[in-house]
Amino acid sequence: RQEAAAREGRDPKSTTSALAVNLEEYKESLRHLGMGEAQIENLLRKRRIMEKVEITAPIDGYLTSRNVTTGSSFKNGDLLYQITDLRRVWVLTDTYEDEARYLKPGQTVRVIHPVLKKTFSARVSAALPQFDIKSQTLRVRLEMDNPGYVFKPGIFVDVELPIHLPPAVTISIDALIDTGVSRRVFVERGAGLYEPREVETGWRFGDRVEITRGLQPGERVVVSGAFLIDSESRMEKAAAGLTESLVTDPVCGVRVSIRKAEKNGLKSTFQGKNYYFHAPKCRDQFNGDPGRYVSNPNSAGPGPGG
Description:
alpha+beta, Elongation Factor Tu (Ef-tu), domain 3, conserved putative lor/sdh protein from methanococcus maripaludis s2 fold, 3-stranded antiparallel beta sheet, 9 helices, rod-shaped
C-alpha cells in the first residue's frame, strides 16, 4: 500500500494514519453496539462477517431485568437487559410526616432482615424525601452495604430509628378521647370509678402521645376499648362531672370540680379568693407559698369567692 501511495504521489505515512483513524472509528461503532474487545479483535483477525454477536456486560452484578428472548427483534435504544450492582442497596421507607422530622441526612438507622432476623446499619440519604399524596407519607431513602447479597430487590424490611426524647408524661393514643373541641382521658379513682379529665397534648410518636397538662406521673388511665365497655355505666355517671363548674388547680394544672374539691376539703383561701385543688399535696404545696402560684400566668384563675 505504501508503494502504491508513492506511485500516486501521496504520502505513505499520512495514508497509514488515515487508515488507522478509520479503523478506530469502526471499532468504536462496534463497541457502541455492545460487542466486546475480544470479539472485535477476532473480527479484525479473521476478516469475516460474524453471524452472532456476543454482548459483554459492562459491569459485574445481578441480572434484574430481561426484555428479550431468542428470536426477538429490537430496535436501537431498546433496553434488553438490566444489570444491578447489589453490593450497596437503597431502602425506601414510607414515614409519616410527624415521624420523618426525626430523620436527618447521615443519621444511622437499623434495618432488620425479615427472614434472617438480623440487624444491619444504614444511613439516611441526603436526597430530598418525596411526598406521596395518596398515603400522606414521606418516602425517605436509606443507603447501606449488602454483605452476602442478602437484600434482594423488592423485599420488605423493618426499619428502626433510635430517637431520644426528653422525659415526659405519655399515654397510649387509645386512651385519648379527642372530640375536636377538647381532649380528655378517664382516670382511675378507685372503687371502680373513673374520672373524666381534660388534658393538653404535645408530641405524638407511634402509639404514644405526650400529656403536657392534666395528668400526674403514675396516674392510671383507661386504655382498652373492652374495658371502656365493661365500665360504661360507671363512666357515664362520672362523665356527668363534665357539666359541673370546673376550675384549674393552680399547682398542677388539672381541671377540678368545685363541688368535689369542697367535699374533700381541697380548698384554700388567699387574699379573699378561693382556690381548689386536685389532690392534698397540691393544696399543701399551695399553702406553703400561695403567692408563687397566684402569680403564675399559666394558671386559669381561682374559683368564685366564698
